[in-house]
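Need residues for this backbone.
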């Protein structure tokens, strides 16, 4: 059984529709599907064990809670009142 961090077949199962993506691993033997990052470092509060984008969960949670949803950038802080 192969394990992939980015598995197009699994994503298709979750989405309920086909997802086409070529295999494009980052190192020899990597079977991950081609992907694009859509976030910013230290902004996701979910705490996934293998996440490469969050080094400090508390910082990520602070950044998430301080984010302005109307901002043009993901990591942009809320404006001061």
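Answer:
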């Amino acid at each position: 059984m192969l394990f992939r961090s980015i598995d197009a077949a699994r994503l298709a199962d979750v989405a309920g529709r086909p997802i086409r993506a070529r295999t494009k691993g980052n190192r020899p033997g990597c079977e991950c599907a081609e992907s694009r990052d859509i976030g910013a470092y230290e902004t996701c509060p979910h705490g996934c064990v293998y996440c490469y984008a969050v080094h400090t969960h508390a910082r990520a949670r602070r950044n998430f809670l301080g984010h302005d949803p109307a901002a043009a950038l993901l990591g942009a802080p809320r404006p001061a009142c």
